[in-house]
Amino acid sequence: MVQAHPQFHTFEDFLAYTEDIEAYYELVNGALIEVPPESDENLYRALQLYEALQPLVGMRQIRLQGLALAVPGEPKNRYPDLTILRPEHPDQMGALGRAAITLDMLPPQLVVEVVSPGAENHRRDYIDKRNQYEWRGIPEYWIVDPVVGQVTVFSLTERGYAATAFTGDAVVASPSFPGWSLTATAMLAL
């Protein structure tokens, strides 16, 4: 007997179907594609950033992985390494019953991705996700790249994202979080 693979037409269909599934999936052209687990080094870097950002935004507005973010294009969702929510998001997600930000919600304040080694991962974070986060209207996107030793801050302008790269002992400047004081070296450290 051949089992039919479900097709999903909306992000809400995807959320309903994956509610009781433990793994993470991206919705690509109506099909589920399992997202591989993160490396321990990336998880640790994201955790360090979580702890550094928490005093600036509070625990209620910060999420480590596991948050399904609806985006335009393909795939239709991403699981950022770290997300800073807007104040209304926790209540909206509570009403939704899922750790998810749908397209009808405002975009998060900040999304952070930690780049894994490999050309495909580099392309995904620097091109695919960058474009999707820009199209989604996310005000700020950070790429923490231990492979090239830099942190890139993308700030949304009227013309799209403007990028600023930070290396070494340069303090990473965040337009959304002026109290941020970590250097690129500190953000890249294990």
UniProtKB/TrEMBL annotation:
Domain of life, source organism: Bacteria
Name of the protein described by the UniProt record: Putative restriction endonuclease domain-containing protein
Domain Putative restriction endonuclease: 11-184
Signal sequence range: none
Pfam families: Uma2
